[in-house]
Design a protein that fits this description.
Strands 1, 2, 3, 4, 5, 6, 7, 8 and 9 form a nine-stranded antiparallel β-sheet that branches. β3 and β4 form a beta hairpin. The protein is mainly β. The radius of gyration is 19 Å and the shape is globular. The chain contains three helices and nine strands.
Length: 236
């Protein structure tokens, strides 16, 4: 599954160059010292992993996704990951690219990430998910949701999921790898300029596992929905 994206603001990016003058901005450029020490190492590495996409370009890409229905709203993630497993995902119109999700300021779940999580956003225009399970650890107890068993799979449209770990046996139809995400045309949405991505006419993933931080969908139909609390999450 896939997924939405929240991205870092320009104020959180040390030394961002001014697009017109080329000079740096923020504490790194002015020479001032922040009032409190900040953990920049891992945050900088995460930004580098998505090619240091300018915040303005990311915001523009998010606005396009929202307008076209892949994302409902822009929101701050809780920072509590959730697991999704399924016997099979069948999708038409598939896109995938890198991004960053943000937590609220001073989130208790930020750890040493600076409140950011490096993610892969996966978008499916239309699809079905067979025998889906979703679970989140609420601190010693699992909230588990199951749906789409038997002959009635879960159905989705304009599904976008942000993940930091995806596993399964995948096959793609007419895949394009390394394409600029802003030029995507398979799922009806475009990602930020200059960001590495891949897209395909269709995707099938068997034995799907995802470790996710956010998800949005224009339509998400869950036949046979069952939500419960338990000691164990989704089987992996």
């Amino acid at each position: 599954m896939a997924s939405s994206s929240d991205f870092p603001s320009a104020d959180n990016t040390p030394g961002n160059p001014d697009p017109e003058t080329g000079s740096g901005t923020g504490a790194a450029a002015s020479g001032t010292t922040p009032a409190e020490p900040r953990r920049h190492g891992r945050v900088r590495a995460r930004r580098a992993a998505v090619m240091a996409v300018p915040a303005a370009a990311v915001t523009a890409g998010l606005a396009i996704l929202t307008a076209q229905g892949a994302l409902g709203v822009q929101f701050a993630i809780s920072g509590m990951p959730f697991v999704v497993t399924a016997d099979r995902l069948d999708g038409t119109g598939f896109e995938q690219y890198g991004g960053l999700d943000n937590m609220i300021e001073n989130s208790p779940n930020a750890g040493d990430t600076g409140g950011q999580e490096l993610v892969v956003t996966s978008v499916v225009k239309n699809g079905t998910i067979t025998n889906m399970c979703q679970s989140v650890d609420l601190g010693g107890i699992q909230l588990v949701l199951t749906a789409g068993g038997g002959s009635k799979p879960v159905s989705v449209s304009n599904l976008a999921i942000d993940s930091d770990d995806i596993k399964g046996d995948a096959s793609f139809n007419n895949i394009e790898i390394g394409r600029d995400a802003s030029t995507f045309d398979k799922a009806g949405v475009q990602g930020p300029r200059g960001v590495y991505g891949q897209q395909a006419d269709g995707v099938v993933i068997n034995h799907l596992y995802q470790h996710n931080y956010a998800a949005t969908a224009a339509v998400f139909k869950l036949p046979g929905l069952h939500m419960r609390f338990g000691g164990d999450g989704c089987p992996q």
